[in-house]
Amino acid sequence: EGAQPDWEVPVLPEHGDPEWSDWSRALLHIRTHSREVMENVADRAHFGPVHNTEIEVFENVFEDHTATQVSQGVAYPRGGGRDAFSLKATYFGPAYQITWMDGVLESRLLLAHTPVRSTPRPAIDLRFGVMLRLVKGDQSLTDKFAAQYVDNLRTGFTEDIAIWENKVWRDRPVLCDGDGPIMKLRKWYRGFY
Question: Which of 11, 72, 103, 108 is the most buried (most CB within 10 A)?
Fold first, then answer.
């Protein structure tokens, strides 16, 4: 409507800090609507069966232009191991998310999805970038972890994509115990359209 923005995307103080790695980035093209990606914020139930992750704490906060997921649990990466984690993932508007994660590694994840096609079937470009706190102050060691970390993220997105690209949208979905506040999230999301 010609007005100035109501809010700005926050600056990450870790960006450019010598204690943090450079960004590792990736781009995924997905045949889905951006709302499917965003709904993961409220979808507690999918973490176990889809991502092999046990969620112990899970809450959502929808306020003004932000939608936040706070969670804690244990991830069992497909490549092996165990990672007890806590995270805060916040959408700033409908398509830009920052995740602050503490686990075996401390990371910052940026996620942005952009619609690139609406017909005959919606499609988006999903861009993500991750940076890690340097492991023992060692950039080369951290770079090795970053490559594996990005592979694990890509695997997680691939697991979600298998659902997103085959899911049928329902205005009134059938929900089960543990699904999370999907309808509250949808109400928040509609505020941008």
Answer: 108
Give the number of other Cβ atoms within 10 Å of residue 134's Cβ. 18
Burial class, 151, CB count within 10 angstroms (exposed 0-12 / middle 13-18 / buried 19+): middle
Nearest residue to 78 via CA among 158, 193, 6: 158
* First-to-final CA distance of the chain: 13
- Output the pTM of the full model: 0.91
Neighbouring CB atoms inside 10 A of 155's CB total 13
User: What does the alpha-carbon distance between residue 107 and residue 118 come to, in Å, rounded to a whole number?
Assistant: 33
Sheet hosting strand 66-75, strand order edge to edge: 24-30, 123-132, 106-117, 96-102, 83-92, 66-75, 53-63
State which amino acid sits at residue 120. Answer: P
Q: What is the CA radius of gyration of the chain?
A: 17
Strand partners, 54: 74
Residue 140, pLDDT score: 85
The predicted-structure confidence for 142-159, as pLDDT tens digits, reads as follows 888 888 888 888 888 899
- To 10 degrees, the CA torsion angle through 14, 104, 83, 35? 10
